[in-house]
UniProtKB/TrEMBL annotation:
This is DctP family TRAP transporter solute-binding subunit. Residues 1-19 form the signal peptide. It comes from the Bacteria. One of its GO terms (cellular component) is outer membrane-bounded periplasmic space. The lineage of its organism: Bacteria, Pseudomonadati, Pseudomonadota, Alphaproteobacteria, Rhodobacterales. Belongs to the bacterial solute-binding protein 7 family.
Length: 328
């Protein structure tokens, strides 16, 4: 099959949205796991592709594969090193096999909002993190935001004790595993695409994620309710293979990086709105959202905070202090 025929075939079979690539164009397959149009990452990836395909037509063609149609996050980085996919934006919790520097983002109650996350990432410490996997063949280009995470289960979660003994799906991160263990819960690392089914069949009792993912994946259908804990951050790194990226002509690379930067600034500025719309959409669809009293919230913070001490040495206390300064 020619690249164009392959693209067309995939469009038909997977619903992946991209213009057929032309002969002679450098093809960038961009694989991700969320939906393409109602999710901060999906919207950003679609916009990046649209702009590149319009502004760099004839030179570069971006094909976006949303909804885990090409790879799950646990395969995508290895596939990238093999040259089978050129771009991805896994959450920062998914890089542990390559670097531990992103552990800081998984510490519970580390950042009070996405503005603090943004400010920290734009600091010298945050920017240096993008290069932490060069030795392993991966380069971070930009951080993309989503939002704060909320907890849900098949029973009401109002106090941390309510989570005791329950099985929670987590992303594959030692910090998130420790966070659930701190609650006396049982963490189950699992691919994103499998979570809805696992909740539905009772393989796990609960999960933690953003409003946009809880809405996009319809978790509210198979959970008792979602508790507004805002206890953690879900954020992404747009990542490429060093060999692929350095192999591009300099002018092509510069233009791609310029478009990506503009898309990043535009979409990161819009995440709070996208998340708020997803929260409202859950309510409109009949989902239950529980807000916590200040006392209940403090109880969750106290239950989860001991996790920090376990990872402080690996992360570096100076990095934790630097990040905390942005909460002020
Ligand atoms: C998850 O696995 O829960 C998230 O990383 C999915 C995503 O990319 O938003």
């Amino acid at each position: 099959l020619t690249a164009a025929a392959t693209a067309l075939a995939l469009t038909v079979t997977t619903g992946a949205a991209f213009a057929a690539c032309e002969d002679g164009e450098t093809v960038i397959k961009f694989a991700h796991v969320t939906n393409a149009d109602k999710h901060p990452k999906g919207i950003a990836a679609s916009l990046f592709a649209e702009r590149v395909n319009a502004e760099m037509n004839g030179k570069v063609c971006v094909e976006v594969f949303p909804n885990s149609t090409l790879y799950d996050d646990d395969q995508v980085l290895e596939a990238m090193l093999q040259g089978d996919v050129q771009m991805a934006a896994p959450s920062l919790s998914k890089f542990e096999a390559f670097t531990k520097v992103f552990n800081i983002f998984d510490l519970p109650f580390m950042f009070k909002n996405m503005r603090a996350v943004d400010a920290f990432q734009n600091s010298e410490t945050g920017q240096a993190m993008k290069a932490s996997m060069e030795r392993r063949g991966l380069r971070g280009l930009e951080f993309w935001h989503s939002g704060l995470k909320q907890m849900s289960a098949n029973k009401p979660l109002l106090m941390p004790e309510d989570a005791k003994g329950l099985k929670f799906r987590v992303q594959p991160s030692d910090v998130l595993v420790a966070q659930m263990e701190a609650l006396g819960a049982s963490p189950q690392p699992m691919a994103f695409a499998e979570v809805y089914g696992a909740l539905q069949t009772g393989v796990v009792d609960g999960q933690e994620n953003t409003w946009s993912n809880s809405y996009g994946q319809k978790y509210y259908e198979v959970q008792d309710g979602i508790t507004e804990t805002n206890h953690g951050v879900l954020d992404y790194l747009v990542v490429v293979g060093v060999d692929f990226w350095d192999g591009l002509d300099a002018d092509v690379r510069t233009q791609l990086e310029t478009i990506l930067r503009e898309v990043t600034v535009e979409r990161n500025a819009a995440v709070e709105q996208v998340e708020a719309e997803a929260r409202q959409a859950i309510l409109d669809a009949g989902g239950t959202i529980r807000e916590l009293t200040p006392e209940q919230l403090t109880a969750w913070q106290e239950a989860m905070k001991p996790v920090w001490a376990k990872f402080a040495e690996g992360i570096g206390q100076e990095n934790i202090d630097a990040a905390q300064a942005f909460n002020a």
